[in-house]
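Researcher: I'd like a structural prediction for the single chain below. Treat it as a standalone chain; there are no partners to consider.
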Amino acid sequence: MRRVSVDGLKAGMVVARAIYGADGSILLNKDMVLKPSYIVRLQELGVPSVYIYDRQLGDLQVEDVVSEQTRVSSLTAVKEIFEQTRRGSHVSILAEKARFREIVTNIINDLLDRKELIINLTDIRAIDDYTFAHSVNVCILALITGLTLKYSRPALVHLGMGALLHDIGKTALPLEILNKPGKLTPEEFEFIRRHPRLGFDILRMNKDISRVSAIVALQHHERYNGCGYPAGLTGSQIHEFARITAIDDVYDALTADRVYRPAYPPNEAFELLAGSGNFTHDYRLIKAFLANVAIYPVGTIVKLNSGDVGVVTGMDRGYLQQPRVRLLYNSSGEPYHEQPEINLRENLNYFISSVLPRESLPSASSSADRCCGSDMKTG
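Model: Treating it as a single chain, here is the predicted structure.
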């Protein structure tokens, strides 16, 4: 399967991964054959891309580091409680401490069960659901980093709670500013800069939510060199959990489609973060995070220095710049019928010269040898 932007979808393509709304409902089921009306509806909902089956890529699968059930249930819970908080019911978030702890525990357990996996999957989210999906993603990324750093389970829970709730202060901000497609005015940006302090105040309303978790919300926009906010802290003045969450927050924001710009490719986001070490971010923590992130996720279409075009099929931990590549076309543009696979780690004469657009391959499979799922949600 491969990821295709909604604008590149065509009727007859087959969905390879179900797409969910933030309320847990299925917008489009796995194995659905796309119709023109479904594509239009996806565009209306602001869904940026879809994983589709592609016969050229055969049995290529992209695995998530957490189960589908864990991701969807986490997203649903975050949406419910954030929306209650936005309506002024701050008591709700305090009463839901056990629910948040359950989310964090489920994510930790999934990560431990799948600890051999590298982060390959780009989460599909509707633009209007960005804050909820972003909160879940940042929690997952923070916990992966914490596991790499060999944190104890109690420490992981505090980190995970803080990361999951790091943006809770945004519930006190006007939606028209949060979702503004254009550049913010200085006054609007000052509104945005309030959300770390607002989040800290919300979380400190109940002593059962740890101060450490609340500090993550307060400090996740601080920067290692002191250029962040709200307090302009530097280095170790920033709690380590907040430094971790700041890295994950930036990575997930870069790789997500936003109302004001398309997503950065993962390799570009990787390079941007790698270059920020001991400047805006703590290099030791960046290394721990990036050790788990695919520079070229499975399914990425790449061009090699030889001129061959292929698709990334996997990589070995510690050798993320040298993945395994299934060759699809030679330098003359002729297809490889046998589709040989080479491991760039073992074939040092080859390296990736560029990443090609998702739509650079000829049309994907337009049918599937399986039954269609339920119809797309239209309400």
